Amino acid sequence: MKIFVVNCGSSSLKYQLINMKNEEVEAKGLVERIGIPGSVLKHQPANGEKVVIEEYMPTHKEALKHVIDALMDENYGVIKNMNEINAVGHRVVHAGEKFAFSVVINEEVVNALKGCIDLAPLHNPPNIIGIEACQQLMPGVPMVGVFDTAFHQTMPKEAFIYALPYELYEKYGVRRYGFHGTSHKYVAQRAASMLNKNIEDLKIVTCHLGNGASVAAVKQGKSVDTSMGFTPLEGLAMGTRCGDIDPAIVKFVMEKENLDLAGIDNLMNKKSGVLGISGVSSDFRDIEEAAEKGNMRADLALKVFAYKVRKYIGAYAAAMGGIDAIVFTAGLGENSASMRASVCEGLEFLGVEIDNEKNNVRGKEAEVSKANSKVKVLLIPTNEELMIARDTKSLIAE
Questions:
Q1: Does the pTM of the predicted model rise above 0.85?
Q2: What pLDDT digit, counting tens, does each position of 291-340 carry?
Q3: Beta carbons within 8 Å of 254's beta carbon, 6+ residues apart
Q4: Beta pairing class for 222-226 and 213-219
Q5: How far apart are the C-alpha atoms of 390 and 181, rounded to whole Å?
Q6: pLDDT in tens, 184-240
Q7: Which end of the chain has fewer surrounding CB within 10 Å, N or C?
Q8: What's phi and psi for 204, nearest 5 deg?
Q9: pLDDT band at residue 10, thresholds of 50, 70 and 90?
Q10: What span, in angstroms and rounded, lies between the C-alpha atoms of 116 and 214?
Q11: CA separation for the pair 397, 3 (Å, rounded)
C-alpha cells in the first residue's frame, strides 16, 4: 500500500509518498509560493537527485497537479500511474470537538472542518482546499483526515475548561484544544517501544520543542493535558509567541503602545517569545550563538524557555501522579543537547538524571539518561507524516 501524505499551508504544500510495506519514503517535496510569483516545486525522490521546477502555480490544485506529474515523471518519478496511490492522508490543524480520532473524509467531514474555520482561520482553509483539490484530481481514491487537535480530545474536562463564563464554552467552543497532537502521539508510542513497555503502563511527558513548542502529559497512551490552549499562543515561550501571560497585560500594552486588536495580536504572535526577549532572532541556533558570545538577553531567553518547559514537566508529573519518561522531539528538542540538559537541570527530585555523554547526540533516537535514572529521558525525532500514513492505512484497511 502506498499512501500520499499532504500538508497544505496558505501558500505551501508539503508531501510524502510512503510505501507502507516497509514504511519507507519513496519521494517527498515542497511547493512554495502558491498563488505568488516565483512558485517553485522541490521534489526529492528517495534514490535520486533533487528536482526543482519553477513555474507559476496560481492555486493548490495546480500545485498538486505538478506534484502528481513529478511523482509519475519517467525521469525522476517513483510511480508509473495514479493507480499506485492507494490513499491520501491529509494533515488538518483543527477539528474542534468534532473528531477525537482520524477519520475517512466525506462531505460531512469537510463541512465539519469548515465549521471549525473560526477556531483556526489561518490553517483550516488551506487544509480544506488541499482536500478538495485532491478529491478533484484523484476521484475515487480514499482520503483520511488526521487532526492536530484529535490526540488531545482525551483530556478530562477539568483540564480543558477555562475559568470563564461557561456559556462561552457552550456557545463558541472556548476551551483548551492543544496542538502538535500527531507529533505527541507518535513520540509517545515510540517511547513505549524503545522502553519495551506497554504504553498503557506508562506516564510520559512529551516535549515538542521548536519555533512552535508544546508539552503534553500522556498517561496510559492518552493525552490528559497539554500546554497549548484555545490557540497555539498559550503555553511555553516560543520562537515568536509569548506563551502564558497575565491577560491584563493585553489591555495595558494596547493603551500604552496605541495598538488595535490586530496590532496586539501581531505583537504576541510574531514579535514576542525568545525573539522578543533576546532581540536577536527567533532561531534558537542564533540565540545560543549570541549567548555564547556574552549576550545577556540571549542567555536570558534560553533560561526563560528552559524554565517554562521544566515547570510544565513538573506540573504534568503532578497531574499524572508520577512520571516514567520525558521525551524531547522537534527541531530544538532533537538537536540541542544544551537545551535538553537545561530543561532537566532541577528535576533530580523526580528521579531525572541526564547523562552528559549520552546526551551529546543530535537528530537520532537515543536514551540520554543515566542507566540508574528513575525517569528515562529520550530523544526521539518526530515523524508526523508517518503517523498520518499509519492512521490512514488503519482506516482504509478496515
A1: yes
A2: 999 999 999 999 999 999 999 999 999 999 999 999 999 989 999 999 99
A3: 260, 263, 264
A4: antiparallel
A5: 14
A6: 999 999 999 999 999 999 999 999 999 899 999 999 999 999 999 998 899 999 999
A7: C
A8: -125, 140
A9: confident
A10: 21
A11: 12
212 is in an annotated binding site: yes
Judged against a pLDDT cut of 90, whether residue 130 lies above it is answered with no
Here the cell at position 366 is 537515543
- Residues acting as catalytic residues: 148
Residue 350 assigned as binding residue: no
Q: In the numeric block, which cell numbers belong to residue 27?
A: 519521494
Annotated binding residue 332: yes
Mean pLDDT of the chain: 93
269 is in an annotated binding site: no
Q: Residue 60 phi/psi, 5° resolution? A: -65, -30
Q: Are 325 and 218 in contact (CB under 8 A)?
A: no
Please list, residue by residue across 272-311, b when 16 or more beta carbons sit within 10 angstroms of its beta carbon and e when fewer do.
bbbbbbbebbbebeebbebbeeebeebbebbebbbbbbbb
Nearest in space to 58 (alpha carbons), one of 31, 83, 77: 31
**Any known ligand binding at 50?**
no
